[in-house]
């Protein structure tokens, strides 16, 4: 009986402002066979939608979700399953959390950076909110508040960045 090494799985990370196209890109990446999607918006909506009414609530519940998702993502990657982690890689702290998954799993990764300007994102956000087809409808004020914390990723952080 020959031993086969498990398939090397890739961790796909997404960086971009609200409505930059992260979830749309995640859907495209999901088309690769052997790939699963872990979506922060979907999980937060399923688990905590009724409890979340402010940015502070989001921060609190997102931290709980990250604690639960991390070991799951590591296990999937170690099992040879590609993971699209549709959690925003928009701050140094969030990217450090993601790097801890990379380090623990030993998986190769790609940080997909959607460099889209505020005006385009706000227009897309308003369209998305009007259509009602997204788990969360951020207001213009919430967009501005959250975007203040956005930090563009750099190679010095240790990521393999693919810029769009």
Your description of this structure?
The protein is an alpha/beta fold. The chain has one domain (11-163): P-loop containing nucleotide triphosphate hydrolases (Rossmann fold), CATH 3.40.50.300. 47% of the residues lie in helices and 15% in strands. It contains six helices and five strands, in the order βαβααβαβααβ. It has a five-stranded parallel sheet with strand order 2-3-1-4-5, sandwiched between helices. The chain is globular, with a radius of gyration of 16 Å. The N and C termini lie far apart (45 Å). The model is unreliable at 1-5 (pLDDT under 50).
Helix and strand topology:
Elements: E1 11-15, H1 22-29, E2 35-39, H2 40-48, H3 55-78, E3 82-88, H4 92-105, E4 109-113, H5 118-131, H6 140-147, E5 161-163
Parallel strand pairs: 1-3, 1-4, 2-3, 4-5
Helix pairs in contact: 2-3, 3-4
Defining traits:
164 residues; alpha/beta; Rossmann fold; five-stranded parallel β-sheet; 5 strands; globular; disordered N terminus
Short summary:
The protein is α/β, with parallel strands linked by helices.
What is the total domain count?
A: 1
Strand order in space, largest sheet: 2-3-1-4-5
CATH class: Alpha Beta
The counted number of beta strands is: 5
Largest sheet features: 5 strands, parallel
Query: Could you give the distance between the termini?
Result: 45 Å
Structural class by helix and strand composition: alpha/beta
Integer average pLDDT? 91
The percent of residues in helical segments reads 40-55%
Query: Can you tell me the CATH superfamily?
Result: P-loop containing nucleotide triphosphate hydrolases
